[in-house]
Design goal:
Layout: E1 2-10, E2 17-20, H1 22-32, E3 36-43, E4 48-53, H2 57-70, H3 88-97, E5 100-106, E6 109-110, E7 117-122, E8 129-137
Antiparallel strand pairs: 1-8, 2-7, 3-5, 3-8, 4-7, 5-6
Length: 138
């Protein structure tokens, strides 16, 4: 069995953003040489997420509106966590959107249904963060 590991780095210029990373994950699969197996894509920071969904701008705007309704950024004083930071909302948004994706690799490609894409979700940006890609298989 083969094993492959790579770190991807993101530094989005805004506080919140959604970045389609499907092609970067597929590049990792290509580099790994794995034809049949699994890929784990994991946000390695507590205020970021990795998830699967459709790459449609209206949906991304809906995520933003929905998440702000659940965990509004302001006022910062509404959160106990915000004693010396202002990112409690980002921790809560990450909890809802998820930490990682595990996907099948079949014939060297992501084995996805129609419209499925992998996204990096940023909820407290303007600094570098890391995503782990780990691949195992044959």
């Amino acid at each position: 069995m083969k094993s492959y590991r790579k770190d991807l780095y993101f530094n989005v210029p805004s506080r919140r953003a959604y970045v389609n990373i499907t092609s970067q994950v597929q590049d990792c699969i290509d580099e790994s040489g794995v034809k049949e197996g699994l890929v784990l894509v994991n946000a390695m920071h507590i205020t970021a997420s990795v998830f699967v969904n459709d790459d449609e701008s209206g949906l991304h705007q809906d995520f933003e509106k929905w998440l702000e309704g659940l965990a509004p950024e302001k006022p910062h004083s509404q959160y106990k966590h915000n004693g010396y930071e202002d990112n409690a909302d980002a921790h809560l948004k990450r909890q809802v959107m998820g930490r990682e994706v595990v996907a099948a690799i079949t014939e060297g490609k992501l084995d996805f249904g129609p419209w499925e894409q992998i996204f990096y979700g940023e909820y407290d940006g303007k600094r570098q963060k890391r995503v782990l890609v780990k691949i195992i298989g044959e």
